Each structure stands twice: as C-alpha cells, then as structure tokens.
Amino acid sequence: MMTPVHSWGRYQSSSSHLVDLQWPSDPFPQSHGGETLAMGCGRSYGDVCQLNNGHLLQTRNLNRFIALSETGELSCEAGVTFDEILRLVVPRGWFLPVTPGTKWVTVGGAICNDIHGKNHHVRGTFGCHVKELELLRSDQERLICSFSSNSDLYRATIGGLGLTGLITKATLQLIPASTAFIDAQTLKFKSADEFFELADDSDGAFEYTVAWVDTLSSGENYLRGHFIRGNHSESGDRSLHSTKTIKVPVWPPFNVLRVPALRTFNAIYYRRQFVKQKSRLTHYEPFFYPLDKVANWNRLYGPSGFLQYQFVLPESLGRPKTIAFLKELSSMKIASFLSVLKRFGSQASPGFMSFPTAGLTASLDFPFRGPATLEQLTQLDNRILEMGGRVYPAKDARMSSRAFQAFFPHWQKLEQYRDPHITSDLWKRTTGKT
Amino acid sequence: MNVVVFGATSAIVQATLRHWPDKSAEMILVARDPSKLRSVADDLRVRGHNVSHQMIVDFENPEQIAACLEKIKNELDHVGTLFVGAGNLPDQELAQGEFQEAERTMQLNYNGVIQILTGCHEVFAAQKCGTIAVITSVAGDRGRASNFVYASAKAGVSTYLSGLRQKLFKSGVRVVDIRPGFVDTPMTRDFEKGVLWASPDDVGRHIARNLAGKRPAILYTPWHWRWILLVIKSIPEFVFKRL
Fold first, then answer.
1. Which residues of chain A have pLDDT under 50?
2. What is the C-alpha to C-alpha distance for residues B155 and A49, in angstroms, rounded to an integer?
3. Which of A18, A25, A58, A64 to mutate to test the interface with B (most CBs of B within 10 A)?
C-alpha cells in the first residue's frame, strides 16, 4: 500500500510503502529487491528522508530507553525523539548536548544529518556526543560503531544521510543543567559589523548564540536584527515543556508570508524590544523551540510550500568578503521569515560528510514561486561555491549534482559505505546513485 | 502495591506501564520473547519504574502458564493488580476455514486468559482486595462477519469477567474489562487507518489513569467507543445480518 509522503517544506511529495519497525532486535525488513530508507519524524525540509516508490522504514516505534547513568550517558533506541529525552532528563538535571530548533527529531535523524544548534561554537555537532551506535545493514549484519570499533563506518554514518544502514540504538553523552531555564539576553544590532562585534564578545562567554535578521531591511540598516545569547541558569526549577500545541487547521490557499506583510512584520518584530539590550530568565522551550508551539507552521507557506536554504561561509574567506556577501544577499530582497545567522566554531565532527565548518552560517527560507525561485537558489549555490562554502543537505530540496558534489567531495567515500539496498531521493538527485 | 503483567510486550500494555502512576509499584512482567521483554523492562526502569521480575511464558503452552502462576504465587505474598494484555488477531478467513487456527485463536485469547484468572482466583478471594484487569476488545460486543472467531474469544472473556466481578464483589476485588476500539499497533498493521484510530500511547494513558481509580467496570478506550457500541448493539438482528 503506497502512502503519500511530504517533506517538511511541502515542496516535494512522494509515494512510498511505509514499513513500521517495532523492535531493535527485528531483522532488517526485506524489500524484495526494492530500495529502502529509514525515516524518523520527517522534519527535514527536503528529500533527504524521502524515497519515491521505495520502502520507508518508520522508526518512531523504536522509542525505548535502554539506560541512563549517573554521569549522564544515555542509551536509547534510535526512534526516541528529543522531546522524549527532555521529558526524561531535564527533571534529573541533564540536557541535550546539541539541539536544533525543534524537539521533533529522532536520535537516528539527528545522527544521520549530524545536526547542529546554537552552541556549535562550544560543543560542535550532535555527532561529537555520540559515543556509540548500532547499525543494522540490509544483509542482516549488525555492527557496533564507535571511535574504536568499526570506526570507518562510524565516521560515515554520522552525517551519512541514512545511507549506511538502519541505526537501531545509540549512546550519547548529555550535558549537566541544574534547571530548565536559560539566562537569556537579546541585543539589537543595526549592521553586519555590529553583529560580528557581538559575536566576538559573546562566543567566549555564552553557551548559546544566534541572531535573527531582517532580510528586507535596506540602506544603512541592511542587516538589522536581534542577537540572542544565553547560558544554562542556576535559577528556576526543572519544569518541563508543555504538550499543548496550536494546529494550523487548514492550508491557506496562498502563502501568507509575502514581502509586504513580511516587511511590516519584520519592522514591528525588530522594534518589539524597545531597549538595546534585554535580559530575561527564559524556559528552554521558548528559547530553543518557539516554532514547535504551532504544530504545522509549515502550512503557512501555502500549498506551493517553501525551500529552506542554509549555507556556511568559511572563516578563511575573511570578514570583509563575508560582509560584502551579506550586503549582496540583502540586495536580493529575499522574503525570508526565519532568517538566522550564527558563527560556527572549529570543533570537528567525527562524520566526514558533516556540514558545519568554522565560519558564518545563514539560514533562509524561500517561498516557492516557480522556476524563478530555483534560478535564484542556483545562483546562490554558484556564489557560495566561489567563496569556498557549502549548503546543508538536511535542508536541501533542489541543489544540483554539480553543486552537491563540489560542496561535499567526500560523497564518493560515503558511496563506498552506502548499503546497496538503501538510497534516498536526495542521493539519487545529487549523485545519480541507486 | 505490585502489578503482575501478562503480555508485557504488547503495544498497549507497554504504553500503559509507561504511564503507571505509582512509580514505586513492583512490576512483574511476563511475555514470550526474552529480548523484547528485556527492552520493555529496561525502558521502564530508566523511566523510574520498579521492574522486579521478568518471566518468559509461551501463551500457547498451558504447562508454561501453570509453572509461571506457581512461581508468582510462591514469590509474592499478595497481588495488587493482575493485568492481562496477551492476545492475538488471526486471519479471519483462515480461522473460520481451519479449526486448528480457530483453536489457536481460542488458546491465545481465551484459554490462556482463563487459566491465569482461574489460577489467581483464590489469591484474590483470600486477600479480599486488589484489581483484576483484562484487555478484551470492542469486537466482543457483537460478532461481525469480518472477525467473529476473534470476537467470540473476546466475548467469552468478557462474559467470564462479568461473572467473576459478581463473584468477587463482596470480597472487595475490582474486576475491569478493558475494551479497546481501533488502535494502531503491530496487531492491526495491515488495516487502513482512519479518523477513529487511536495511538497505543493515548489508550495506555487512559487505561493507567482508570486503573488507578475505582471505576468503571467496563472501560471502553478511547471513551467514544462506548457510544459507538451502544448503537451497534441496538441494531436489530434482522437488520444487522444484512449489513
């Protein structure tokens, strides 16, 4: 029975045979010569977790905990979500070492995309905290992978886009957090120079740093925004996030986030903080997961969906050229609602396909408006390539094979470790390999 | 207060135990597959529950069930809650065509359950307190062409529980008949899922909350199935047979 499957950006839809996994000890499902791919929560924006006409292995019922030690070492099945981990560990004084902007990711998905968060400059990627994982291949071989055991496969699986096998279990190291609160500060800035000054001041003293930027501002204020920084607080209790969400009940038949509305929104949002700097004790939920409150916020982009674009410019490019590129971006008047800027640190991931590298990363969303949008993004790819940067596959839905292979020259090494019965729509699109 | 659980690896039972309100309750878990049972026990322990025993029993084997009951009666001086969630949904065509398959269905859904209830009857009658909770099904409320072999087994258990409830009422023992509707579990893997389908987690949470209280005797889960079945049961037979 084929089921329609949409990416989170709702840009692509596909149809797959869904296979429900229940136990980590179960054999790798037989697909009778067909292609397979594991899928967790499906929050990737593009087709990294899609496989048209293939067998999608649903990992959400591999959701059991295995052990939690006194030192914060957590072992669990790969379908456990960050939401479930937080509910378990926050009351016990622990926190996720790295978290993206949503709690709805599985441990397996986090490993395969080697996700990063607001603390990359301190902790690196999620893969840096994975001590061990169990990989099940389609020939039923079961391998424990770590730095010291099957280390090549370990390095291929972290950031390996789900292609090396099915991750059944993993062990990760949590970080201590006395309370569920963050000592957060928000500072307004009006230029790229100000942004970089804030980043220089903050990265050494704050666990979490990120900036929201108004991509529609122009003139002197071409890069205005809010710089957010924070540390785990000693104040407050260990209360958990709530389970209540608002659901967007119907698809608006158009994208509500268009330039005129967005320009007004951005102007109001920038000014909502009257003072230049504000400090507040903030619960981890609104600090890390503001969008999770609206259960299907992706629908606000309307039926055509949207494309997320995240790139990194290497530190070696130098600040003047980086700032010049940011000016170039702002002149493109991108109506991006969720524009984020952050400095990545230099901590290397164990995964050779990992996206982050020391430098500046920016994340933008583009409502899909047809070939013009794709053309705009292709031009961006070319510019990023010229500057030695790369684009994040976990968010990608359209980059060409030429661009992907140039951004990630190690793709051929990943291809060697890829399970012969596993592939994805992204891999087919970017490498032609099935 | 402890809880003895038969069928601990079933999706609904796992979910119910995760939501068990009394974290200090000693949990004695019984299931068929050792590695699956270990996964369930580890998960519950990490969540702060107190799993004291893990026992392996094949529900198709009456000798194994008897030995398990003996062990439980020897090791425990009382039983707080007896929770039976074992069961199996057969292929209806196969079960109606081959008696061996129907027999197997009865063993897994009726005989095994009755053997456990018989074995524990005296324990509850003597201790004059406690709860007996068994997962049956809304299917047992009325036989339909699509699943009547399974439905007859479940209906048999429900009738047994009704009599047991009456028998043990004066002893202060609560007997609960848990009747799930459509639940998205491995047992219903091949069914197309629609709006009436519930997750094991929702159903488990509902059951755990109700077993902590004193009512009801018959728990339809989710609750709307009580009304759906009321309608279905009131359809006259001369109409029902034509549907």
1. none
2. 44
3. A64
Q: Which of residues 131-160 of B touch A (CB under 8 A)?
A: none
Q: Which residue of A has its CA nearest to B43?
A: A65
Q: Round to whole Å and give the CA distance between A71 and A173.
A: 8
Strand partners, A134: A144, A169
pLDDT digits (tens, 9 = 90+) for B110-158: 999 999 999 999 999 999 999 999 999 999 999 998 889 999 999 999 9
B40 to chain A, closest Cα gap in Å: 7
Give the pairing of strands A277-283 and A94-95.
unpaired
State the nearest Cα–Cα gap between B159 and chain A, in angstroms.
33
Q: Residue by residue, what is the 3-state secondary structure of chain B?
A: CCEEEECCCCHHHHHHHHCCCCCCCEEEEEECCHHHHHHHHHHHHHCCCEEEEEEECCCCCHHHHHHHHHHHHHHCCCCCEEEECCCCCCCHHHHHHCHHHHHHHHHHHHHHHHHHHHHHHHHHHHHCCCEEEEECCHHHHCCCCCCHHHHHHHHHHHHHHHHHHHHHHCCCCEEEEEEECCECCHHHCCCCCCCCCECHHHHHHHHHHHHCCCCCCEEEECCHHHHHHHHHHHCCHHHHCCC
**Under a CB-based contact definition with an 8 Å cutoff, are residues A345 and A358 in contact?**
yes
Cβ neighbors of A386 (< 8 A, separation 6 or more) are none
In this structure, the strands spanning A130-136 and A166-173 are antiparallel
Query: Cβ contact (<8 Å) for B35 and A88?
Result: no
> What's chain B's average pLDDT?
94
Q: Please report, as a single letter, which amino acid is at residue B24.
A: S
Query: What confidence tens digit (pLDDT) does each residue in A26-40 have?
Result: 999 988 888 999 999
In angstroms, what is the C-alpha Rg of chain A? 21
Read off the tokens for B32. Answer: 């068929």
Per DSSP, what are the bridge partners of residue A73?
A: A173
Written in H, E and C, the secondary structure of A205-226 is CCCEEEEEEECCCCHHHCCEEE
Chain B, residues 35-64, CB within 8 A of chain A, namely 35-36, 39-40, 42-43, 46-47
Closest by Cα among A59, A70, A104 to A173: A70
- Whether B43 sits inside 8 A of A64 (CB atoms) is yes
The residues pairing with A76 across neighbouring beta strands, listed in sequence order, are: A65, A170
DSSP string, A366-416: EE--SHHHHHHHHHHHHHHHHTT-EE-GGG-SS--HHHHHHH-TTHHHHHH
Across the interface, whether the CB atoms of B42 and A67 are under 8 A apart is answered yes
A159 φψ region: left (φ > 0), alpha (ψ -120 to 50), beta (else): left
> ipTM of this complex > 0.90?
yes
The Cα A398–Cα A28 span in angstroms is: 30
Residue of A nearest to B192 (CA): A1
Q: Is A25 in CB contact (< 8 Å) with chain B?
A: yes
Rounded distance, CA A44 to CA A37, Å?
A: 14
Sign, Cα dihedral of B29, B31, B34, B36:
negative
What residues in A contact B11, CB-CB < 8 Å?
22, 61
Q: Which helix (H) or strand (E) holds A103?
A: none
